[in-house]
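dumping these here so i dont lose them again. two proteins, back to back, each one seq then structure tokens. dont judge the mess
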Amino acid sequence: MFGLFFGKNHSLGIDVGTTGIKIVELRKENNVPMLSNYALSYDSGSLLQSDGLEILNGQIETILQSMMKKAEFKTKRAVVSVPSFLALISFVELPEMPASEIEKAIQFEAAKFIPSPIDEVNIGWEIVGNYQEKPVEGGQPNRGSQKMQVMVVSVPNAAVDRLSSVVSSSRIKVMAMEVENFATVRCLVGNDKGTFMIVNIGAKATDFTVVSDEVIRMTRSIDIGGSEISRAIASSLGIDLQRADRIKKSSQINLLNPKDQLSILVSPVVGMIIEEIKRLQELYHKKNSLRKIEKIIFTGGGSKLSSLVEYFSKQLSVECQKGNPLARIGVKKEHEKVVGEVASELTVAIGLALRGLEIQK
């Protein structure tokens, strides 16, 4: 944490992860989002949430309240993350219709693919495209042939209520809740044109998001993350997880050297991530034959693995790079070094805080 600033145009982004909490505070300065403050609480050996968002022994409330007190943030207005494994993102096609009818149509369509009763989920939607379903005859479009492509996002009400309750216990005003994938895209891609895959290697899971021309087209999450790499190192070398974490984030692992002892230890986990990327590439190209994924962007604590970008680029024959979460915000020069060391772990929180500034416009 560092310098504190005053002002009304502040927003918090609160990322509640499986093993830690990250908070970022942004402020508007001459219409530019500036990093005002941040805080992290991370423990590779703890578990703050399960697949059902079970909060263990009130840990999140306790940790969050402590972070808010110590960091002395200048606002309590926040956008809060919803874990990607809790969200179902689907795409439906609807005939063009009046705006007043879209909501009812989406509710009807969503009931076909959402496994839970429709009244037990929170549903959001956005029109992401339009197209002509049938060829034009006689120079005139066929009536009723226009189709809308709608992205539908659903999250269990119980999860939304529980997260909201946890955050509110720290007297934080929740302006909005957002699925992690959307915050990550806002932070790393923004308005950039093109087709990208973002690979967010978290502690307990890795999220894959395909985004094309600012719109999310495909998402996937697997239960493999940085903790698996740390456990592989700890088990083989007979050391604790904290020391294994430090090795993982150091320059000691050379994935480009197949004979390197540490590389051999982590290669099975890395291999599973590579196979999932290949599978999603193939699936996306089948559905979008005229487009290809131009670049793969890595983020999350697991992306700190030495030589990771070079190794993935070689294995996948696609341009790979580490995402720069600070590219769309300002950071005081004297803080750039310390913030840069943890920036990859703040990606989601930064994206959430950016959303908060947008809401306050």
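---- next one ----
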Amino acid sequence: MEEKTNMTNCRPDRAKVGSFVAELRKEKGLTQKQLAEKLTVSDKTVSKWERGGGLPDISMLIPLAGRLGVSVSELLAGCRLSGGEIGLRQAENLVQSVIKCSPAKPLRAWKVKTKEQPLFVICALLAAVSTLVIWKMGLIEGMFMPFMSLPMVLSAAFGAYFCFFAPVRLPDYYDENEIGFFYDGIMRMNMPGISFNNRNWPGIMRVVSRWCAVSMAARPLVWLGANFLLKEARMPLGMPVLMTAYMLGLFVPVYIAGSRYR
């Protein structure tokens, strides 16, 4: 399908781009949801593009064009182009127009529905109720509080971030370079030995979200067992050992998920 187009204006037509995306998606035999999953965005975002409600974010141009089997210039022109139909200046103007129209903020996890979000909420409620029961029963003692409170706070903080606030897609420079650290506001992750990229990032988000949710719900019961064992066995190093085990339980799954796609 070859289509001629007038490139004098060099501004992307949202309706034309959206119609072209829908046409190419159907040619690939993909639903909006399937395309969204491949791009780690919501199906509502794909629907918005196809309805002409907005242009893809600048970070999505190459992945979207690649999934649909066209060039970025063709995607922005809204049609297939012959070899000499668009020059470098016109292509640059198209990209610059998209940059100006693209939202500055990345798509956050709370805008994309996942199985981990309700799991986290349920586990948080279970943790709160069981902690209250333990406190009412007078089973909490000062020397064992750090093992219960600190990991629960860490699980709640990390879990809430990755379930609701983490960007669903990393900037493109993570794919172009081997970067073992992740910065997002106050959130810091430094993982020597693995590289964060958009191939392993969805898996890392799932692993951290699920582990934090489950560990948060299980912490009160684990604390009761540890409280009994440490008192009865009089293990002076028991608390550091348990805290170390907790941290390993978080970072080992992250390393496994991150190592799948280097």
